[in-house]
Amino acid sequence: xxxxxxxxxxxxxxxxxxxxxxxxxxxxxxxxxxxxxxxxxxxxxxxxxxxxxxxxxxxxxxxxxxxxxxxxxxxxxxxxxxxxxxxxxxxxxxxxxxxxxxxxxxxxxxxxxxxxxxxxxxxxxxxxxxxxxxxxxxxxxxxxxxxxxxxxxxxxxxxxxxxxxxxxxxxxxxxxxxxxxxxxxxxxxxxxxxxxxxxxxxxxxxxxxxxxxxxxxxxxxxxxxxxxxxxxxxxxxxxxxxxxxxxxxxxxxxxxxxxxxxxxxxxxxxxxxxxxxxxxxxxxxxxxxxxxxxxxxxxxxxxxxxxxxxxxxxxxxxxxxxxxxxxxxxxxxxxxxxxxxxxxxxxxxxxxxxxxxxxxxxxxxxxxxxxxxxxxxxxxxxxxxxxxxxxxxxxxxxxxxxxxxxxxxxxxxxxxxxxxxxxx
Length: 424
Description:
With 424 residues, the protein is α/β, with parallel strands linked by helices. The protein has helices at residues 2-5, 8-31, 42-45, 50-65, 98-106, 111-115, 137-142, 153-165, 169-185, 205-223, 248-272, 274-279, 282-303, 305-308, 332-344, 351-361, 395-398, 409-423, and strands at residues 83-89, 117-123, 145-147, 191-195, 199-201, 231-233, 314-317, 327-331, 366-370, 374-376. One of its GO terms (biological process) is GPI anchor biosynthetic process.
């Protein structure tokens, strides 16, 4: 009995049990925010952290904006505009997001940065007065242009009828998106960024976005079939970046290859080393190769793809699994292509899906800025402190950038100040 407890196989079991326990604790600590992980904790992963900081900054900024305008400095034309920022908004029941969205886009910018932005806020209501922000002072003081419908009475009546009957909402959403895109296109800005009205932008989102767009221009010729790109995503959720079933054959192949490599290495050690001949019995090799290694592989996959193989900081190709349209930045000429495509056949459908269909049909390259520079905070119901199972989390809440909440207020401010200082 004592010999068995001190045998090489027994020591391998002791060592592996301790190692596996340690790695499991590390995996659990590292991946509880990863929605593709077996250790994902939905009761806290959707909690506001940096978003609370940004909301506080946004509300403080709005208090000043009620009395102090912060628009582009008066110029003779639009030639100095680098980015048209468009935000479309409708009146929501018991929720007001537009003001914090706009405030977070502007808070922290200096005047030089602000002068490079043409901010267009689109009140997408047939009767603009029903929107609570329409006649508020902060909107007048912050937006360069408050866009309203300029449509025929027939079209306005049609949209009014859709709203009253809650029908074909996707038709109006797509129309509004293209209407706002056209308004931004008409400014002559070389880039157009369209945001939903229920997001928060991080401090420094502008300089990161412009840097990402510059990288996209440089990398696209080598990365895509056309040498160009359709858009750069400013938000995506890790919800769809897990171990996707399409990659299952590859995962199986590499797992089997890893097991075979471990077995071959152990046999090699036993053949060519004295210590291997002493301790690596057939039973030990079998246990390590066919039990321990598969268990470690299971732990690896359970830890989650976002944790074990995160996207590198910068820009990454995201032709698949990118979701959703909370924030997309387009080169001007690609916005023109999309507008022409929309005008050629008035389309009805979810704008996210239709834009992806267009991209797939035309082999368009799509980039994503990593990490996301905006967060989606629009929710139909409160989180109740986050105490809910994942299956009970509404889809509106699951559109969530988990790394966004890890941002630090002081770190972002220092980065922003350093970038602005280097540019002057």
